[in-house]
Write a structure and sequence with these properties.
about 110 residues; two-stranded parallel sheet; 2 strands; elongated
Length: about 110
């Protein structure tokens, strides 16, 4: 964590910077455990304010985390990359092949 910046402020600050510099992008946050309902509510507000694409709370399962990252990357490349074929073996190949078929082969 950055000095002087709380955990709730990091995603919002990152979103503000990314809007200026790094469009397009996908954003995920890995977070800690909420110990009570107030913390859950605050975290929910922070996630909404930051407009995250996905929030992953501790404890996370390695396979579930990999699946989330794979889906986020699949979403990104499906929107911003013309040649999807190289990504089929490593991302969601079924989804990418459907998109390739829908686009046609001339794109």
């Amino acid at each position: 964590m950055a000095p002087g910046i709380g955990g709730r402020e990091v995603p919002t600050a990152a979103r503000r910077v990314s809007r200026k510099r790094w469009e397009p992008r996908r954003s995920c946050a890995l977070g800690g455990r909420a110990r009570d309902d107030r913390r859950c509510a605050r975290r929910g507000r922070a996630v909404n304010e930051a407009d995250l694409d996905h929030y992953i709370a501790k404890p996370w399962d390695d396979e579930a985390l990999q699946a989330i990252v794979r889906e986020q990357l699949t979403e990104y490349v499906s929107r911003w990359v013309d040649d999807l074929l190289p990504y089929v073996p490593v991302l969601n190949g079924t989804r990418l092949m459907s998109i390739i078929a829908a686009r046609g082969f001339d794109r």
